[in-house]
Hints:
mainly alpha
Amino acid sequence: MGWPxxxxxxxxxxxxxxxxxxxxxxxxxxxxxxxxxxxxxQVVSRVLTLAPSITSTNDQHVPxxxxxxxxxxxxxxxxxxxxxxxxxxxxxxxxxxxxQQVWGYRAIGQMQLQLGRxxxxxxxxxxxxxxxxxxxxxxxFIKAICLHRLNRHAEARxxxxxxxxxMKPLLAEPQSESEGFLSAGQLYQQALMCRETRAALAGPGPxxxxxxxxxxxxTNSTPSGKWSFTDTQxxxxxxxxxxxxx
Length: 246
């Protein structure tokens, strides 16, 4: 069995426990890690429909985080909804616990990256990093992609190498030997994001003319050369619905 089998389980149980944002997040991680982008987009659509009715204090950031994990063509209405969620989250986060602040600002940062708002992305990631009590390669990978899109290539490379240095001791080689010991969240945030960030940095940065055509308020469809996630398939972690380690 491998990650495609885990994705099959997620698909077969797609509507189970619909009130749990944490289970939706696990499904999103698994679909992304298994390269099931269409199923991932179904999760995003479902979560944005459910978000107003199921979001509680401790998981207020989760709909934003799920929507930021991969490629999705947001409608203007969905962008407005995400902006409202991020605005509400930003107001609430200073009064929340340290972990909620780390996760919340990081989710906002990745969402702003999705929407092509690069200064806002970096600002949110800086706030997340300021609250961290440990090392966070995930934050650095998001930052590296953002800096690359701003044509700040040396800084992007430095951020990526720092994140990769933190991540490598956590993942044995070959990677399949690590998968049974890590959660879906860790595999997405570290292994998959490392590969996708490396691929993004290997590609060309945006030309100045690209920004003139950018329309982040309505969609995250990207002109040629702009950031996109890549499909990935690997092996199954046995920790499908385990409590996430962030």
